[in-house]
Amino acid sequence: MNVRRSAAVLAAVAVIGAATQAAATPSPSASQAFPSALYGDKDPKFDGVWRQSLALLAQDTVGVKPAAKSVEWLVRQQCADGSFASYRPDPTTACDARTMLDTNATSAAVQALAALGGHDAVTGKAVGWLKSVQNKDGGWGYAPGGASDTNSTAVVVGALTAVGEKPERVEKGGESPYDALLKLTLGCDGDGAGAFAFQPDKKGELAANADATAAGVLAALGKGMVVKPGAAAKGAKGGTCEKPGTPEQAAANGAGYLTKTLAKGDSHLTSALPGSDPQPDYGNTADAVVALAARGDTAQAERSLRWLEKNGATWAAQNGPAAYAQLILAAHATGTNPRDFGGADLVKRLNATGPAPQAAQAAQGAEAADKKSDSDSGIFGVWWYVGVCLVAGIGIGFLFSSGRRKQQQP
C-alpha cells in the first residue's frame, strides 16, 4: 500500500490507465480549498478516496466514531455505476468518460464503509461494479481493463471479504482472484523465492516485489486491511518454500520471503527510485507487519513493529492520514496500543488531520454548553445583584419619602 503509492507512482499508473480511459479528472486549482470533510491537507487528486477510506477504517478499528460529514463525503464520491474515482472535486457532477475510475479506491471505500456499517446499498453497488470489470484471468488492474496486478487484486479481495463474498467464487471465465494471484507468484529458486510480483514485465518475467508480496499474502489468506491480533490464519506452515499450488501455500511462501527480507534489512524494508540509494520504506514495512501477523508469523512482525515504533511517527507526520492509518493497522494486528506508539498517540494525530470524531464533537458541544451555562449564570448573578440593589434602593427611597410625607402631615 505504501500510502497507496506515492503521487509519482500513481501518476505512472494513471498514464497506463489512460490506454483504456480518457484523461483523468482535472485537479483542483492551487487556490481552491479542499473539502472540510476530507482528511489531510495535500492535493487529493490521486488519493482522496483512498486516504479518506484508510482514515475512517483505522478510526473504526480503534473504536473512534468518525465525523458524520467525513463518512458522507466518502459516500458522495461514488459514481452512479457503483465505482469510485481517485477523487471527484465536484460530486454533484455525474461521472463520465473523463472520470478516472479506480479499483483500488473503490475497494478501499468498500472496506471502510462495510466496517462502519449502514451502507449496504453503497457497498453492494461498488462490489457489483468491481465484478463487472474483473479481468479474464480472474484479477484486477488499477484501472478497468488494465493488466491484473497483485496489489489491485489484493485490495479487491479485501473488499469482497468485507461484504461477505467468497473470493474463490467470484470468477470471470472460470478464473478466480486466487488463480490470478498464483500466476503472479515466483517459484522457490533464486533470491526472490516465494515472493509475489507486481506484474509480469514486457517479456512476461516475474520479479520479486516486497509491497506486492505483503498484499499478496493478505489476499491469498482471504483477508482485508484489518487483521485482528492473534487471529493466525490456518493453512500451510511456513519455513520452507514449496510449490505454490494453493493460495495458502502461496501465502506461506510469501511470508517466508518477507521474513528473510526484513531480517536482512534490520527489520524494515527499503525502496529506491532510479538513480538513488535505497531508503527505509515505512509504508511497506507496516504492510508486511500486517501480512505476517495475519499468517501468525508473530516473531518477525513484532520485531518490525518495534522498528516502526522508533522510526515511523516522523514519517507519518510528513505523509498524513493514510500513513497514520497504516501504522495504526499494523499496531492493531500485533496487539500494540496505537495510542502509545513509541511515545506517540497515533489515533490523536490521525484525528487531527480531519474533522473531529463524533465523540470529540459531543465533548466540544458539552464544553461549549457548560461555558454558556457558566456565562449565563454569571450574567444572571450580576443582574440579580443589580436587581436586589435597585429594590433595596427603591425601598430605602420609599421609606425616606414616606417619612417625609409623615413629617409634612399636620
UniProtKB/TrEMBL annotation:
Pfam families to which the protein is assigned, alphabetical: Prenyltrans (PF00432)
Q: Where is the Prenyltransferase alpha-alpha toroid domain?
A: 54-164
Q: Which UniProt keywords apply?
A: Membrane, Repeat, Signal, Transmembrane, Transmembrane helix
Q: Where is the signal peptide?
A: 1-24
SUPFAM superfamilies (alphabetical): Terpenoid cyclases/Protein prenyltransferases
Concerning Gene3D superfamilies, the annotation shows: 1.50.10.20
Region Disordered: list its residue ranges: 355-375
The UniProt regions of compositional bias labelled Low complexity, in chain numbering, are: 355-367
Q: Which InterPro entries match?
A: Prenyltrans, Terpenoid_cyclase/PrenylTrfase
Instruction: List residues traversing the bilayer.
Output: 382-400
Q: What is this protein called?
A: Prenyltransferase alpha-alpha toroid domain-containing protein
Species assigned in the record: Streptomyces djakartensis
What lineage is on file?
A: Bacteria, Bacillati, Actinomycetota, Actinomycetes, Kitasatosporales
